[in-house]
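4.2 Preliminary Data

To establish feasibility before requesting continued support, the project team ran the inverse folding procedure on a target of 327 residues. The structure was first converted into the token representation described in Section 3, and no sequence information of any kind was made available to the design step. The complete token record follows.
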């Protein structure tokens, strides 16, 4: 396996849980255009709030536009909230085309939206929903917006940040049965595969984008209570050690989970930190680059090889293009 030489922690001057204002201290995003999927709830909302406070002009695609406008009132201009469903590639294509018709550059693209551990379902194009939304939808969006990213890259540089998860440790890509057509559906195996795919997508995006000064990163935001857990019953979260029987956070969660603003931290770090200049294609956690750990590591932290291997990243890119072309 081939893993980036940069996949190891660096000196950042920050701990694992800085607040957004600490990360963005001294960073001026005035004149910068940013786009955040899932930017109207949970850590996505906190990400948008922090970037706008630093001077950026934010755009948020949304499946529920009315809700997004309510949540982002006073933060994002209503006409910068456009309709888009990551579970429908036609919708993604339309959003990207509309964005390009009105914007000639995109400095930061953050693929934050996701579904987790949901019952078996399928996207409009027939992909299993977790990898369909978390990976295929973002793949179509990033590639559709590439002209705007290239424009920003050729002037000041552009960054792409895709949210992966510690869940990638569950397992890598099953290239023989990505959509669970011939194997029993397992919602956690599906989630882990989709988050490994997000990390691999960042690896290959970085390789392809370097010549245009577009650098890409994947991030694990940390444990946070957000709407991402909406498909999990409290009994399951009790079994995972996240909550008590009454639904309150467990001692483990209280000690280890981050607040939503802190959960936005690693995304903000990857999107803006000058410490990452000249680097890319790496998986980050706790506001730093993660350590590459062996496939059989039992550590909760670190990144497994199947999520950052450069050869697997190319294989996934090619397979994704093949499946989209076959529609």
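Position-by-position output of the design step:
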């Amino acid at each position: 396996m081939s893993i980036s030489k940069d996949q190891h922690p660096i000196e950042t001057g920050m701990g694992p849980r800085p607040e957004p204002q600490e990360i963005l201290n001294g960073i001026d995003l005035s004149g910068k255009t940013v786009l955040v999927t899932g930017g109207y709830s949970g850590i996505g909302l906190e990400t948008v709030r922090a970037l706008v406070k630093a001077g950026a002009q934010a755009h948020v695609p949304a499946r529920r536009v009315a809700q997004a406008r309510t949540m982002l009132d006073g933060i994002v201009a209503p006409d910068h909230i456009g309709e888009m469903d990551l579970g429908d590639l036609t919708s993604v294509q339309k959003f990207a085309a509309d964005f390009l018709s009105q914007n000639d550059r995109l400095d930061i693209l953050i693929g934050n939206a996701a579904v987790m551990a949901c019952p078996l379902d399928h996207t409009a194009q027939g992909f299993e929903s977790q990898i369909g939304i978390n990976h295929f939808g973002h793949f179509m969006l990033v590639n559709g917006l590439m002209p705007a990213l290239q424009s920003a890259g050729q002037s000041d540089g552009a960054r792409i940040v895709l949210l992966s998860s510690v869940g990638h440790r569950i397992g890598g890509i099953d290239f023989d049965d990505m959509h669970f057509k011939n194997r029993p559906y397992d919602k956690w195996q599906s989630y882990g595969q989709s988050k490994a795919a997000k990390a691999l997508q960042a690896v290959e995006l970085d390789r392809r984008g370097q010549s245009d000064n577009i650098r890409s990163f994947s991030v694990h935001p940390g444990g946070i209570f957000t709407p991402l857990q909406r498909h999990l019953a409290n009994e399951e979260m009790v079994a995972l050690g996240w909550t008590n029987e009454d639904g309150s956070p467990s001692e483990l969660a209280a000690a280890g989970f981050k607040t939503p603003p802190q959960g936005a931290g690693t995304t903000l770090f990857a999107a803006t930190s000058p410490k990452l200049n000249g680097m890319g294609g790496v998986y980050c956690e706790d506001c730093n680059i993660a350590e590459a750990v062996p496939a059989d590591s039992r550590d909760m932290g670190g990144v497994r090889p199947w999520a950052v291997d450069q050869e697997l990243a190319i294989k996934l890119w090619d397979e994704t293009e093949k499946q989209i072309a076959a529609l």
